[in-house]
Amino acid sequence: MNWHIQGGRVLTDRRLATGDLSVTGGNLTEVRAAHAPVIDADGLLVLPGIVDIHGDGFERQIMPRTGVRFDTALALKDTDRQLVGNGVTTAFHGVTVSWEPGLRSLEAAERLIGVLCDIRDTLACDTRLHLRWETFALDQMAQVIKWLSLVPRPIIALNDHTTGSVLKGASARKIGQMAERSSLSREEYMTLLDRVWSRRDNVAIAIETLAATARANGNVLLAHDEASPEERAHFRALGAKASEFPLTIETAKAARQMGEDVILGAPNVVRGGSHNGALDATDAVRAGLCTVLTSDYHYPSPLHAAFRLSSPGASDFPSIWDLVSANPARVAGFADRGSLVAGRRADLILVDAQDPAHPHVVATMVHGRIVYSSGLLQRRLPVSTPIAAE
């Protein structure tokens, strides 16, 4: 459907300015289509839709309590409503493939990916895959490599939470949580972890094999939880184009010095710090050490983080909004979204920011289709006379 969005403050050309925006055939256009319904956006911000390249909040819809599972299709459809209601127009579901049984097992990933492929075209949000391969999941690697050829191409991230668990590092305090997620006792989990750790000499070659496949296949490759500049250099050489949740300031600096993106969690900003002692995302943004914010585990956070970091009247608001739109779109390899430019997809949101502490999404549009609205009908203006194309 064609639309004409009238009188909103539109984020284009690096600034917010009152103006109109036209949508024709699912794309933004400089020419207003004849008979296009008019949306009165007076008092609203018209912003590029949020591109979320790392989010695993859907896991709570599948298993809201330990050991309590729900139908996968039901969980993904509920997640879809949460995404568009929070202004997310493109989402990459972070599906972890681990050596653990339970929620992050190969079997659970197979079930989720199969359902997502079946229902993807019915979802409101443009929903894709971010495969998070635990590098010690050696027996699961062959299936992960097969999934790299899915269309659209998944993002693939290299994750190592095993080493930290064994060496009493950052992950060690999560052992109880990991055991519960796996439906194992702590003792059973530790026995399994010891068996997995015994194969550590095979991990490096497995990482190289998977990275080479991703490079040849055109998948975006990310490295997760890099602990040092040396690790960043290592994974850079393997083709990892961005540092996802680096563990130290020095690692983030090493990435930015090479012009690479650094990805952190928007909940970190909204909560005023990391829940697990990691980098403070607000400080990292202010220091130029974070270029992308993701939902991580909380879908409302990208929208709210942007408004925590800036306000529509501030000169830096456009660059702050880039953290959740243009920059993640670039990391994901998109050239058709992330900014409100003629010829690009009409992926956009209308936001009521009268209360900047609690911005409210009035409408979400994905490829020109209104997929979510809250009070939008009252803003539709009647077309009493034909509107000629300009």
From TrEMBL:
Cited Pfam families: Amidohydro_3
InterPro entries assigned: Amidohydro_3, Metal-dep_hydrolase_composite, Metal_Hydrolase, Metallo-dep_Hydrolase, PhnM
Source taxon at top rank: Bacteria
UniProt domain Amidohydrolase: residue ranges: 206-372
Signal peptide residues on this chain, from the entry's feature table: none
Gene3D superfamilies associated with the record: Metal-dependent hydrolases, Urease, subunit C, domain 1
PANTHER family: ALPHA-D-RIBOSE 1-METHYLPHOSPHONATE 5-TRIPHOSPHATE DIPHOSPHATASE
Full protein name: Alpha-D-ribose 1-methylphosphonate 5-triphosphate diphosphatase
Naturally occurring in which organism (per UniProt): Mesorhizobium shangrilense
